[in-house]
Design a protein that fits this description.
CATH architecture of the largest domain: 3-Layer(aba) Sandwich
Number of domains: 2
GO cellular component, one term: cytoplasm
Distance between the termini: 6 Å
Structural class: alpha/beta
Protein name: Ornithine cyclodeaminase family protein
CATH class of the largest domain: Alpha Beta
Radius of gyration: 19 Å
InterPro entries: NAD(P)-bd_dom_sf, ODC_Mu_crystall, ODC_N
Length: 325
Amino acid sequence: MPEVLLLSAADVRAVFDLPSAIASQRAAFRALGRREARLAPRLLLDGPDGDVAFCYVSRMPGTGAVSKFGSVHPDNAARGLPTVSALVIVQDPEDGRPVAIIEGESVTTLRTSAASAVAADHLAAPDASRLAVIGCGPQGRAHVRAMAEVRPVERVALACRHPETCDIAAGLADELGLPVVAAPSVRDAVEGAQIVVTATTSAEPVVGGAWLDSGCTVLSVGSFAPDRVEVEDDVLTRAASIVVDDVPSALDHAGPVVAAIRAGRLSPERVQPLGPIVAGLADGRESAEDIVFYNSVGVGVQDTAAASVIVERARDLGAGRHADL
């Protein structure tokens, strides 16, 4: 067997920054939109206490197959641990041999926020500057940085589960040079926002449609399974466009979409994929006054695109270590 490149979370952070992550996710969704990527059905396995195990497999032109296996443990936040744990395995495009094993939580955090940035870049109003982020964990923090990369963000309102103890606003304000405030409630954060990101693992809606201003874009990244529903039904009924990362995956796994279809308040035909929008083959927003809802469950091609960049840069920079299997 060949030597396999082993990349830790520190290795990933050393070679994979936000601009390269955003570029990788543009490539991923462009390939999906042009039907150049191959995507296996997304697998979820429920566990105790709300835990979910997952597995993705996909490939893009010029890449070998890439698989990611991991799990989401919401209670880890109280333990001071990441809620997502994962490994990404990369195969050689010619002979299928394993060439890299990558720590997956660091990949997931950055590629998820980068994909949201790509979605916002195509769906949000060009001058959107007021951002609300619901959830103050790693994804919430990463999304503040990612949104600031693609939109002229002038103000950020954070809504945390425990606002009285939330202390990340000041750090983000210093890091980004932006006014970042901890809102006393989710509603206070959302009202007046032009971009709303929900980065929780909540099974109960946290955002109501009546709170949204016209022209608002809502990006749900924590509604990744049928039992995870971060927004009320009226968010979807008010939305002029409902966009997802992959339609078949969303119809099975995107909690708000599944719930609205089951209740008869949403036709599956209204759900459109992000890929053709990124590829320039479709429009995601028709009017500046439209409310747009985007639900990301996470799909394998995102990991394939990210892993391709990570492995190439790691080889160029000599990052990681090699091991025989």
